[in-house]
Amino acid sequence: MFISATVDGQNTNHELTTRLVHAMNGKAHVDLKTTWHGIDNDALKSYHLIHVFGCWNIASIRLLSKAHRLHIPTVYSPM
Predict the structure, then answer these.
(1) 3-class DSSP state for residue 75?
(2) Residues 6 or more apart in contact with residue 57 via CB below 8 angstroms
(3) Which residue has the higher pLDDT, 1 or 23?
(4) Which among 42, 41, 33 has a CA at the least distance from the CA of 60?
(5) Is 16 exposed, middle or buried (0-12, 13-18, 19+ CB in 10 A)?
(6) 6, 9, 49, 55: which could form a disulfide with 60 (CB 3.0–4.6 Å)?
(7) Rounded to a whole number, what is the distance in angstroms from the first to the last CA of the chain?
(8) Please, which residues have CB within 8 angstroms of residue 58's CB and are 6 or more apart in sequence?
């Protein structure tokens, strides 16, 4: 899951994504990221699905675009 640092800075959004990660614990491997700096295409290709929260910022748009080019399914939840 990806949530930008700006969106994650809001307490309600941070709590929501943290609870989702904990709820999925043991059912799926979940990485919660607030930045994609330093993540190359090879590392990104290892993901089966990318869920982006708060898509109205440049970091989210870049991640969605990169995932699209790599044919990685994405879900986004505008916050």
Answers:
(1) strand
(2) 4, 6, 7
(3) 23
(4) 33
(5) middle
(6) 55
(7) 14
(8) none
- The phi-psi region of residue 11 (left if phi > 0; otherwise alpha if psi is between -120 and 50; otherwise beta) is alpha
CA pair distance 70, 21, nearest whole angstrom: 24
Q: Are 1 and 77 in contact (CB under 8 A)?
A: no
3-state secondary structure of 74: strand
Instruction: Convert the pLDDT of each residue in 63-73 to its tens digit.
Output: 888 889 999 99
Instruction: Give the rounded distance of the alpha carbon of 49 from its chain centre.
Output: 9
Q: Which residue type does 68 have?
A: H
Residue 33 has phi, psi (to 5 degrees) of -120, 145
Residue found by looking up tokens 């109205």 in the block: 56
